Amino acid sequence: MMDSFRHQGLRKQLIEQLRLKGISNTTVLQAMESVPRHFFFDSSFLEFAYEDKPFPIGAGQTISQPYTVAFQTSLLDIHKGEKVLEIGTGSGYQACILAKMGAKVFTIERHKSLFDKTSKLLPALGFHSIKTFYGDGYKGLPAFAPFDRILITAAAPEVPDGLLDQLKVGGHMVIPVGASDLQTMTLIRKIALKEHETETHGTFRFVPMLKDKVK
Ligand code: SAH
To answer: What spacing in Å lies between the alpha carbon of 201 and ligand 1's midpoint?
Structure first.
């Protein structure tokens, strides 16, 4: 796929919009400026890639709105070399933003069709270090735990205990919590083995985090 001057220009405008909407983390903005979001769209929908909106990616799922990606990534506060677990690979866009920022990314998707598509796309785009998994994010990845950061990109009815267990002491989890239409963006800091503090950051709308993988 091509990254034309036109796409680069549209991307610059999108980053400017995110700035105006209050995103100030320059590392996040730089990563989003360097990853062509239209690579994650089917070719017939390229013109939608630089609107600040979610968009369907198949299997009833969506690529998150750029503002939401910027907001969650800023809250996550990642540093180079950190191990990050993402639940909800979807298009793979968020995973690439994390990888661009130097994270070691592990990402899980429960839809086989999305997993198949994205696990081929990411290396083709040059993101060879992202490890993709087909499975149920509620279970996390015990074999690769503990993680410095855990990011959930689907609406969780509550904070999954199993995932908190896979977070390092000192680690952060960013998770939209709520079963209804709107979820509360929640930042969890694990301060001891069985102790964490919780901070809330406004409301967002995500597709649901569902149990078990599907074909
Ligand atoms: N981060 C994605 C956003 C995709 S939307 C992107 O950048 O495009 C959320 C994704 O979470 C969907 O693809 C959905 O299938 C997936 N999902 C929902 N529940 C899940 C679970 N329990 N385990 C893994 N993935 C899940």
So the answer is: 21
Residue with CA nearest ligand 1 atom 21: 137
Q: What is the CATH number of domain 51-204?
A: 3.40.50.150
Contact 210 CB / ligand 1 (< 6 Å): yes
Q: Domains of the chain: which residue ranges?
A: 51-204
**How is residue 27 written in tokens?**
């590392």
Whole-number pLDDT of residue 179:
81
Q: What single-letter DSSP state applies at residue 64?
A: P
- How far is the C-alpha of 78 from the C-alpha of 143, rounded, in Å? 21
134-188 tens-digit pLDDT: 999 999 999 999 999 999 999 999 999 999 999 999 999 999 999 889 999 999 9
CB 119 near ligand 1, within 6 Å: no
pTM score? 0.98
Q: What distance in angstroms lies between residue 209's CA and the mean position of ligand 1's atoms?
A: 7
The set of catalytic residues is 64
In this prediction, residue 44 carries a pLDDT of: 82
Ligand 1 pocket, 98 CB below 6 A? no
71-96: burial string, b at 16+ Cβ within 10 Å, e else: bbbbbbbbeeebbbbbbbbbbbbbbb
Does 82 contact ligand 1 (Cβ within 6 A)?
no
